[in-house]
Automatic annotation (TrEMBL):
PROSITE patterns: NUDIX. It comes from the Bacteria. This is Nudix hydrolase domain-containing protein. Residues 25-118 form the Nudix hydrolase domain. It comes from Candidatus Nomurabacteria bacterium RIFCSPHIGHO2_02_FULL_42_19.
Length: 118
């Protein structure tokens, strides 16, 4: 799978295999925060087998943007794959640059979802 590598302005400069990155390569991630009408937030815990932040709690859904995808199309795909959600009405939030052991932009999305709506 190839992923877009972007510059500091989040403009695509090339595509690379996901495992063929150096520490300076900036890539794209989408995340989806889900809350209900009471304000309760659904969190997901990353698998301990993941190389990036194993066991860490975070957004309900997240994924690395692949070649041919936008942030939005990626998170729609991931929400269906991971939680079976379809026809969701996304609210676009902040796009942040993260620089830890990894270097990426993350586009935040959110939805309000109550059990009766599933």
């Amino acid at each position: 799978m190839k992923i877009p590598i972007v510059d500091k302005n989040d403009d695509v400069i090339e595509y690379r295999e996901r495992n063929d990155q150096d520490a300076n390569a900036i890539y794209r991630v989408s995340s989806l925060w889900i809350r209900n009408s009471k304000g309760e937030i659904l969190l997901a815990r990353r698998a301990f087998s993941k190389s990036h932040d194993p066991g860490k709690w975070g957004p309900a859904v997240a994924g690395t943007v692949e070649e041919g995808e936008t942030y939005e199309s990626n998170i729609i795909k991931e929400a269906e794959e991971e939680l079976g959600l379809t026809n969701i009405q996304l609210v676009s939030g902040a796009r942040l640059r993260k620089r830890t052991n990894y270097n990426y932009f993350v586009q935040q999305f959110s939805i309000v979802l109550d059990k009766k709506n599933i």
